């Protein structure tokens, strides 16, 4: 290789790396250029400043039956608020109802225990001595989108028989662990509708899961009110088919979570 080619190669490598980082930051919201996606999301009408946490009214917070309740939210990008500048229903419940929220959310992660960042792996790293009044688990869209086997509910409640490499097996393992360590009410929530047969199958399995584990399902997927939303409102509430904007969380999703939590914890 001549000197000119060596110089060209030396220049090309960092340029390509920078381009890859830019794509990762702009599309995936990851890495040192994460701000690129945040900047794009900030321009969405549904992420208007009027929905930012610092501008949300807190009147009535003192009277909320959720005030002082400590709630763990376990999930990935939807729980985190990836398309809404890091704000989700968990944050609005904290602001409007005065509950103490622990948001254990990492974008791109799965329920299925296929790596060290799964819901189950992260759950087991939490301090078992802390108190929770409720635990809210996201039915992961990442499992379905990545083709993770859905699996099936086990014949018993013995954690040794759960296939945690599948979504339902891992969800059962999460339920068993939460019950053994904290013994508080468990909620599982779905996303709103988008085209994915694998996720539909997971949603369909939730009633049997809820009956087996005594869990509560916040079923946004099949909720008639959620599915009756107009096209214009939907486009305002959602940044894409999976991720809400701040307006979507505040005006569309949070009331459903508040209703479910109050029903059990009030």
Write a brief structural summary.
Helix content is 45%, strand content 9%.
Q: Could you walk me through the main structural features you see in this protein, from its secondary elements to its overall organization?
A:
The radius of gyration is 20 Å and the shape is globular. Helix 4 crosses helix 11 and helix 7 packs parallel to helix 8. By secondary structure, it is α/β, with parallel strands linked by helices. It has a single domain, classed as SGNH hydrolase (Rossmann fold, 3-Layer(aba) Sandwich), CATH 3.40.50.1110. The protein contains 11 helices and 5 strands, in the order ααβααβαβααβαβααα.
- Give Rg in angstroms: 20 Å
Shape: globular
| Global structural class | alpha/beta
Report the span from N to C terminus: 74 Å
What distinguishing features does this structure have?
single chain; 266 residues; alpha/beta; 45% helix
SSE map:
Layout: H1 3-28, H2 35-42, E1 70-75, H3 77-80, H4 89-97, E2 100-105, H5 119-123, E3 134-138, H6 141-145, H7 167-181, E4 186-189, H8 197-213, E5 216-218, H9 224-227, H10 231-237, H11 246-265
Parallel strand pairs: 1-2, 1-3, 3-4, 4-5
Helix pairs in contact: 1-2, 4-11, 7-8
